[in-house]
Amino acid sequence: MTIENPASVWRLRVELLDVAPPVWRRFDTYADVKLSQLHYFIQGVMGWELMHLFSYQDGRGYGDQISSELRLCDVCRVGDALTYTYDFGDNWQHRVTVEKTMARPKGT
Q1: Domain residues of the chain, as ranges?
Q2: What is the pLDDT of residue 60?
Q3: CATH class of 11-101
């Protein structure tokens, strides 16, 4: 699956699952970002320290892992979600939801 304009900007919401109170962040990134790069963005906005392994799965949280070399726009559309797991020992699961798409700023 690919989108018509992989050069667009997407607004993402990242929520740490199974914690109270809710912990989430919202940020914008390019739709064509590789999932391996998105990992660094999530680490930054969530305050994690890049110390553990990670994986992506479909939004239901089960099934085959998604290659981190794919682009976000290859696996999602607006309204879709992925499960991002960080630290396989503690199994911190996050829902990454594509909330909306916007035009890329001119000159970028």
Answers
A1: 11-101
A2: 57
A3: alpha beta
